[in-house]
């Protein structure tokens, strides 16, 4: 990856589905104001990007510019993240090809970091000694972090965060990490329509959008053995009835059911079709957090309101909400809950 000073912002375009080479694109420059100054990523570079038609910087000067935490010029499924003052495109869907309910394959490197064999990512091990931070502070903190001989740390995308989270709501904390923290952690991704909000992931919960000014936990990540924008073939192959997920190896119904049922009836509906209910991580992998208007479904999928779907996780009580972009437990709802069914085949 081309490197530059922290006084420069570069945007590396994610590779397109046809496999073209990444292009380094300079969209502006800022003064290096230090790790405690949020202006390092709130810099006024919108006019430069607008002239080059590269990035949508939003409408408010009070939030970080659109080259951080938005898709910008990245390909679908990727988001621009700040790596030591450079903008690179990181995956916000599981390009590593698996979404286990209970993450595994972690190695404590003994230097404050944890390696994840599934994703190739290197994680900051401990967060308990760091105070809660706003989203802007979290970006600056990871950008300036020097740990285990590396200074290319950044905030993770939601998909990367979910790779170490317990989306099935099953304790304990993933092996290799520090003490469990079930409080939400900041991701690199801003909300597409509520520009004052950014997405969070949780080690035990998922997912929510919160105001950037609210404090939250921070756990930084670096690319490790994988590049941030490696060539990716098209993820989905579809026909009128089904969609093949070539990354996860799953066959989905092209359209979710528009009939809401109680959770006790949901598994039988899929069984009758020779399929099964998806796990919460599997179904949540179809979430497109860059969509401004619900349902937040990746193309070519579609569904009818209310866009609530049962999963097999947590005794089939976890629900994926494609309107709000979250996962929640039906057990937390006071009244009897009904949701739709979206079946999948291995």
Tell me the helix content: 10-25%
SS-derived structural category: alpha+beta
Secondary-structure element series? EEHEEEEEHHEEEEEEEEHHEHEEEE
CATH homologous superfamily classification of the largest domain: Mannose-Binding Protein A, subunit A
Quaternary status of these chains? single chain
Mean pLDDT: 73
CATH fold name of the largest domain: Mannose-Binding Protein A, Chain A
Low-confidence stretches: 1-66, 168-172
Note the beta-strand portion: 15-25%
Q: From the coordinates shown, what is the CATH architecture of the largest domain?
A: Roll
What distance separates the N and C termini? 37 Å
Structural domain tally: 3
Please give the CATH class of the largest domain: Alpha Beta
What does this protein structure show overall?
- The protein is α+β, with helices and mostly antiparallel strands and 346 residues long.
- The protein folds into 3 domains: 8-91, no CATH class; 106-222, Mannose-Binding Protein A, Chain A; 236-345, Roll (Mannose-Binding Protein A, Chain A).
- 11% of the residues lie in helices and 23% in strands.
- It has helices spanning 46-52, 135-144, 158-162, 266-272, 280-284, 313-316, and strands at residues 8-12, 24-29, 78-83, 86-91, 106-108, 113-116, 122-124, 184-190, 197-202, 208-211, 221-222, 236-238, 242-245, 250-253, 261-262, 308-310, 318-321, 326-329, 338-339, 344-345.
- It has a 4-stranded antiparallel β-sheet, with no helix packed on it. Strands 12-13-14-20 form a 4-stranded antiparallel β-sheet, with no helix packed on it. The protein has a 3-stranded antiparallel β-sheet with strand order 8-9-10.
- Strand 12 and strand 13 form a beta hairpin.
- Mean pLDDT is 73; it is low at 1-66 and 168-172.
